């Protein structure tokens, strides 16, 4: 059976129970590693989207309503957040 002990972690909040050791380990090791992993995956998705859209012809891009200069912004934040050119 796994036993957890409590470490006193000063969070600036009073009248709260100390968190178990495994939660402290999660906060110091796993959570930052997970953030890096999520960031890296997001960057790969953006790169794939930029590459896929860049391979389209200007005519195809015009058919879907975007200009070649909008490709990086669309890949990062989506079509609805990019201002339309008039």
Structure description:
- By secondary structure, the chain is mostly helical.
- The protein has a domain at 21-80.
- It contains three helices and no strands.
- Helix 1 (21-54) runs antiparallel to helix 3.
- The radius of gyration is 23 Å and the shape is rod-shaped.
Question: What's a concise summary of this model?
Answer:
The chain has 86 residues and is mainly α.
How do the helices and strands line up, and which of them pair or pack?
Elements: H1 21-54, H2 58-63, H3 71-77
Which descriptors would you attach to this protein?
3 helices; mainly alpha
Question: Radius of gyration, Cα only, in angstroms?
Answer: 23 Å
The proportion of residues in beta strands is: under 5%
Largest sheet: none
How many β strands by DSSP?
0
Oligomer: single chain
The total of helices stands at 3
Poorly predicted runs of 5 or more residues: none
* Coarse morphology: rod-shaped
Q: Strand-and-helix sequence, N→C?
A: HHH
What is the terminal separation in angstroms? 66 Å
Protein structure class: mainly alpha
Helix share, percent:
40-55%
The chain-level mean pLDDT equals: 80
